[in-house]
Amino acid sequence: MTPSYSRRRLLGLLGGGLGWLAALPLASKAKAAVKNLFTSAGAPKGYDPMKHHWLICMDADRCIGCGLCVDACKTENKVPQSSSYFRTWVERYIIRKARPGAVALRGEVAVDSPNGGRNGFPPTLVPREEILKAFFVPKLCNLCENSPCSQACPVGATFDTPDGVVLVDPEYCIGCGFCIQACPYGCRFMNPETHTAEKCTLCYHRITRGLKPACVEVCPTQARIFGDLKNPVEKDPLQEFIRANKVFTLKPHLGTEPRVLYANIDKEVR
Length: 270
Known about the structure:
The chain is of the alpha+beta class.
């Protein structure tokens, strides 16, 4: 089973809302240092990234594979319509039953994502009697705290923001593709129209204006839970979800420290 988010890590995130108060002197310097990096990030004037910490969680039990999130993302962020380009997508996992006499308790795993799950999923070709378990998993940029993409970028076009998002500044991107090769989650692509690297930004242009990411907004089952750890609301859905569920990150052994959390996923999810 994929290791769960450590208690220390969770306490650090949930305590971030108070921790920033003790770091105000450093915060002002950090804010000044990153100010120039937001030239094309889509954040409004006056937005202070030091006063927010965005986080998103995925509940695999709630995802029904409808693809509305994928379609909304394409529309909102003007992602190329080709089936080769996605900022977010949905994968279907089908775990077969173990063969009679096999030592393993679970059989082979089939994973598919036709057109990123945008138009839903056709009936599986795996016979029903052979299926042990089937479920859907939303995917997007993992917003790594130790992001390999930003480390690989030779010009600083990819950068980590103080409020927990990894962005790409198209005005600086030279289209070398190093970040795409460095991403261990396959979350980046080269936009064929702009010839710059692209990925999920958590709809930064929306969340910095008090709105939810487009994918969160349209999800009919609330499989995507989004919030601001530094500005929790009453009965905050994000913090309640983290407290009520055992949450995981993808590929924790890589040390990237993803800031996208998953609940109710199986070990086969990668």
